Amino acid sequence: MTNTLDTVEGRVALGPRNKWYALCRSDRVQPGEMTRMSRAGEELVLWRDSAGTVHVQEDRCPHRGARLSHGVHMGDRLACNYHGVQVDAAGVVVSVPGSPGCALEGRRALRTFPVTERAGAVFAWFGDSEDAEPPELDVPEPIAGGEWDSFLCYVEWDAPWLYSLDNLMDPMHGAFLHRNSHTMAAGKREAMFQVRETDRGFFFEKTDQRGVNFDWSEWVDTGLQWVGLEIPYPDTAGPGGPFTIVATATPINENQHAAFFWRCRNVSGWQRDSWRFLYRMRLEQRHWQVLEQDRTMLEAMPPDAYARENLYQHDIALVRLRRLLRATAKKQLEAAAESPDVRAAANAR
To answer: Domain Rieske: where (predicted)?
Structure first.
């Protein structure tokens, strides 16, 4: 069977490797429990050890491939419920109760993903190589704390992750799909756009309007791929200036994805308290209504939407982003093909 990650199309659909991906909200992984999920084409089990540290591993017992998520949480290790094989947080088989002292004991036989928790979410590094040391997660400033405060909105949608990326890099849809929103009713419904390069990605912005509506998006790739944008807010929405959104999406499989939307404002002290109160009491429900509009539109799009598009000037960012993802996937596959481990595996077949 061909692994879809071995093709450019597969890597684009399931996400390039050697990237940090957000997996879920932190509170989804509870102490003493095991959480099973699919992300970026990988079957995973998430769990916390007795110290509360989260771990992300393949959901596969190294003995016979049974689901570890169906097993027993033992504090500092997981035990497979099929034959009792115990694996620790480093992926090392620490005990084989049915055959003590066998060759499997002491082996690092389970893939374990580098993981960290920030801004209320669990992030994992999906590398081409299991042993490669990942770069430190570069958290976007608005969700890194300090003078910023944020709320995380998490969703799972039945649509390819690329549809969400397109949506985020398409400022013009705000003036149409969200035209009845409390913040996106103002401004023109026609515009010209430009791409502005940065050292970490690019801006896609209106040339004739700024600070009126959803007027620009920024694509950023610092090891974590994310989109930033701002929505102007009236004074009645509380202190903190423009309403900033940091968003990222993670493929679940080719047809589903998880998306993370941090709603941020630059506030501290009593202004932070005021903003948090207003958000919970007045704004949160409205924001979920906007996300529901996006969900309805994206989930209804056909699987072959790309094959039958007729794009125009407003879609420059979409074309650019798709080319970037394809170029990244192609480069990764070429590099993997040159590695000694990959050549040895190919010769073994």
So the answer is: 21-124
